[in-house]
Amino acid sequence: LESLRLGLSTRAGYENDWAPTLSVITDSFQAPQLRELRFNAYDANDTEISWVPYGDLAFAWPKLPALELLHIRAGGIGNLGSLEIPRLRTFIFETGGLSREDLRCICRVPHPALEHLALWTGTVSYGGEILLEDLAAVLAADHFPALRHLGIVNSELSDVIIPALVASRVLPQLHSLDLSMGIFARTGTTLLVEHARHFRHLASFDLSDNVLLDEEVAELRGVLDNIITNAQRDREDDFPDDPGVRYVAVGE
Predict the structure, then answer these.
(1) What is the domain class of 101-252 according to CATH?
(2) What share of the chain has pLDDT > 70, as a percent?
(3) Model-level pTM?
(4) Which residues 6+ apart lie within 8 Å of 250 measured at CB?
(5) Mind giving me the DSSP string for 74-96?
(6) pLDDT (tens digit per residue) in 149-182
(7) Are 211 and 241 in contact (CB under 8 A)?
(8) Residue 140 CB neighbours (<10 A)
(9) Alpha-helix residue ranges (DSSP H) falling in 72-184
(10) Where in the chain are the domains?
């Protein structure tokens, strides 16, 4: 057994706890060879993402030495612990609101093999705590020397992330960038047009499922031929640059 995907541990999503199941897995003779572990086999028909705690998983990582892919879809109630997983190449955390503690757990230790990092930072309305300064360790890339794909997804930071990326050490090493599902609109468009040259080396730059108007998409396509802008959501235009009237794609 090299790959495992788990659904909810209970029928009531708000009672979910993957720790007991993970304990059984890590006690198994199969644990040393497990390469892929996904906690994401459910959707909105089962329960809302922000209602789902994930449990205390900190004990597990030393018992999974071959793990290369970890994918968690959950709310912010749980404990990742120190993610010391030397072979980890892909880490995806989908949530309606990422906590500072979860982000600290991700950034606390070096990830020498990590190539793909996708973080859904979410919204303050559903527990999101991440401000731009909280991403400093990710943008500095000190613990992510092999990173080739970065996703700051489902984020309320769309208006401030472009200058931070331009000034970062991580951007030049990236092959692809994902800022999808956020509140990217006029302010982000103006900044990205101004700094477009810093993003032309990317093979793909995903801005899909934001709130871009057709004219903003046209402006971006005029300076970047690597952007993906599929499925933009509507936004209220009375105050087009006010984050208060724009919403991330997934909150509750």
Answers:
(1) alpha beta
(2) 96
(3) 0.95
(4) 49, 94, 96, 120, 122, 154, 181
(5) --S-EE------TT--EEEEE-S
(6) 999 999 999 999 999 999 999 999 999 999 999 9
(7) no
(8) 13
(9) 100-107, 136-140, 161-166
(10) 1-88, 101-252
